[in-house]
Each structure stands twice: as C-alpha cells, then as structure tokens.
Amino acid sequence: MRIYADENMPLVSQFFSDIGTVSLFNGRTVSAQQLNDADIILVRSVTDVNEALLQLNTKVRFVGTATIGTDHIDQAYLASRSIAFSSAPGCNAQSVTEYVLASLWCLAQKYQWDLSHKTVGIVGVGNIGSRLANTLQALNITTLLCDPLRAAQESDFAHSDFQQLCQHCDIISFHTPLCTSGNFPTKYLLNAQTLAMLKPDCAIINASRGAVIDNNALLHDLQTAQQRRAVVLDVWEHEPNIMTALLPYVDIATVHIAGHSIEGKARGTEMLYQRCCELLNIPITKQLTQFLPAPAFKDIHISENFGLPDVQNIARLLYDVRRDDAILRQYLHKQGFDWLRKNYPPRREFSSLQIRASVIPDYLRQLGFGIA
Ligand SMILES: NC(=O)c1ccc[n+]([C@@H]2O[C@H](COP(=O)([O-])OP(=O)(O)OC[C@H]3O[C@@H](n4cnc5c(N)ncnc54)[C@H](O)[C@@H]3O)[C@@H](O)[C@H]2O)c1
Ligand SMILES: O=C(O)[C@H](O)[C@H](O)COP(=O)(O)O
Fold first, then answer.
1. Which one of 236, 270, 290 terminates a domain?
2. How many whole angstroms from 323 Cα to the centroid of ligand 1?
3. Contacts made by residues 277-285, CB under 8 angstroms, sequence distance 24+
4. pTM attached to this predicted model
5. What's residue 162's pLDDT?
6. Are residues 41 and 77 in the same domain?
C-alpha cells in the first residue's frame, strides 16, 4: 500500500507505517505525477485536492485531510470516483479556543478591559465556536451566538443573526468554514457594509479562514477609523502572500497557527489513522498518548486562594500568543509565511497540565485543564 502524506503532518510514520510505505510531500508544490501510484493521500489545508491533482492516479482509495476546514477539497469529484474521504472534525477545537482566550487576555491587558463587562459574539458555533462559548461562559463572559444552520435545525439554539451581533457586540470572533455558495455563504461575511454596522470600537478576531473577512475593506476601515479597533488575525486572504499593509493596525498577527498545538495537529493525524483502519477493516492498535512528549510543566498546586483572575497566569505557563505575534513581525520578511508555520515552536494544550488542589474550581475543568 502506497501512502503519501504532507511533510507537515506530525507522527504520520508512527501511525501509518504498519499500513503501508509512507512517502512525504510538500503540500504547496505536490503534483499529480508525484501521487500517481498512491493508495492513500493525506493532506493538510494547503493542498487543493481535485481532478487536476488526481487525474493520473487510478487506484487511490482514500483521501484524508488532517484539518476541519475542507474548502481545499473537491468532495464532489472524490465522490464521483468513489474515493473515500475524511476530515478531522474537532481535532484542533481546543487549540483554537486556547488561542482566542490567550488573545482576549492579551487585549484585555493592553486596553485595560474588564472582560466580564464585554459581550463576545461567536460566528459559527460548531466544534470550535461551541467550545469557545462554554469556556467564556465558565469565565463569566457574556456571549451571543450566530449560527443560522444550527438555528434551522435546533429549536432550542439561542441564535442571534449576524446583523444583531454587529450591532451589539464588543468583540466578534469568527469560527465558520469558508463557503462561497449555499444559503449562508461566509466569504466576505465581514465586508465594507457589515464593518460599518459594528460599534466603532468592536474588536475583531479571525481564526477561521482569511476570506471570511474582506481584507481590503478591513484595511480601509482601520485606516479611516475615528476610534481604535482591536484586531486579531490568525488567517489572511491569499496566504501565504498576506496583505502586510494590515500589520501596523493589527494587535495580534499570527501565521495560521491557532490550531497548531502539539495535540491539535497530532490528533488530526490520529483521526485519519482511525478512519483508514475502519476503511481497511484492520484493528486500531495505536493511540496518540503513546507518542506525545512529556510536557515541560506537568502539574501545579493551587491553594484555596486561587480565583478566576489567576486562570490566565496558569494559562500563560503554557501559551502566550504574544510570542507568535512577535515571530510573525520579526521573521515574515526573512523566512516567509510557510516556513514560520513549518517551524512553529511547540505549544501544549491545557490538558497537558494537571491541577492539584483540595477543591478544584469547576471553571478549570470546563477550560480543559487536567485534574490530578
Ligand atoms: N486558524 C486555524 O488554525 C483553524 C483551525 C481549525 C479550524 N479553522 C477554521 O475554522 C472553521 C470552524 O472550525 P470548526 O471545527 O468549528 O468547524 P465546524 O464545522 O465544527 O463548525 C462550523 C460551524 O459554522 C457554522 N456556519 C456555517 N456557515 C455559517 C454562517 N454563514 N454563519 C454562521 N455560522 C455558520 C456551521 O453551521 C457550523 O456549526 C473551519 O472550517 C476552519 O476553516 C481554522
Ligand atoms: O482547518 C483546520 O483544521 C485548520 O485551519 C488547520 O489548522 C490548518 O492548518 P494546516 O493544515 O495548514 O497546517
């Protein structure tokens, strides 16, 4: 069995070497010729999988993407050739949630906000949006949720439409897929018109896909604004060639790494391994926990005086998003967007740190910390 995988897919040899011969490729430059004898193809978000890529291959059985986003996959084409397909839903939901949380704490410190007085709008309430909502609610931060697809299917879903979010929120965080068609397209959901509906100081966070925000319109808004608007961008239109003119106006700028915790990326590989085993009808014998390195911080004791304001101090032991903002600003010109993603320094999720206490506050459990 010939297995071809993106070179940026962690642990792929460890998981797949018993199933077949694993060869690695560069996800941006891979060609149809390179994949012509593949039985299994494993990609990340930078590879467009379509007729052009698979035209020379007559035997591929499975295509997997170790991501939740699927805007790079022509699923109709795969179905037309009866090629099984899987993404990795939820693999990086915790990682992105921790990224947004770290960004909120960073903005709160910079602008001296009290987050408990802010209303955060969450657009797209799937794996990431719902986890983020639960996390913010555990921290006593008010949320408004916008997900018209869920609203149509769930009578008890507390939906606010996007216009309401624009008018009422102090912070809006985007967590939708990139869709250009259908009843609820998301391309340029935030555009010149909807930007004009926002409160003048409404902060914007985008860790979904770059084109959910019209980057030209955002630049114009930021350049002409009367009031400072805080902005966090992890994703950009036209990656890897991003609009650097935005950088001076963006508080936190990162290279599409919100989902790149060690666990988040590796869980994507594990999920594809599980799908392959099911497809090939072979037993699942390997688990992510076998391969994860020991974390630098294993456990921490908290006392009875620990309170909500202390949570961010623990979280910062694991991740400070300012590190990633500094990396982009220092090295983008020298190394380029893709190199910075490939060489992303390790980041562990909250679950890697065990909290010890006589009584564990509920919110630490809800945030996903390990409990000893
Ligand atoms: N920056 C990163 O590293 C990173 C990591 C993971 C995911 N992502 C992006 O974030 C997106 C969301 O991830 P997820 O795991 O939560 O996906 P998901 O599929 O679980 O959830 C997406 C949600 O968005 C909703 N939605 C669709 N169209 C909408 C619209 N017009 N308005 C409001 N809601 C809408 C869907 O109903 C769904 O509930 C992914 O599609 C991906 O593009 C980025
Ligand atoms: O859609 C996703 O799951 C994320 O955007 C994912 O983290 C993208 O990262 P990449 O596959 O490019 O490493």
1. 290
2. 25
3. 277/19, 279/61, 279/62, 279/84, 280/19, 282/19, 285/18
4. 0.98
5. 98
6. yes
